[in-house]
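Database export, one record per block. Field names are fixed; values are copied verbatim from the stored entry.
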Amino acid sequence: MSSDASLDSRKRVLELNMDMGLLNLVRPRRVTTPMLVLEGADAAWGRRPARETARAYHTEPEYFPHMGHNMMLEPGWQAIAERIDGWLAAQGL
């Protein structure tokens, strides 16, 4: 990746974080579907963001031990995939 592309990518991530965090563009009250909130228990920023997200969507967060934020890219990702599949099945999806 060129340095210009890398800079553009980092800039876009910053913009998205500002949109969702600082500007608070997320509107949980408009979401009427069930929500599954998963996070790795070892995520660098701790459990607070997942707890707050889950609270906003009236659900409980679920934490996977020995996992960081990129759970689907880590060893043991199958457990996360199975949890998602089971949850979707329970929703009739």
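Remark 1: The chain has three helices and two strands.
Remark 2: The mean pLDDT is 85.
End of record.
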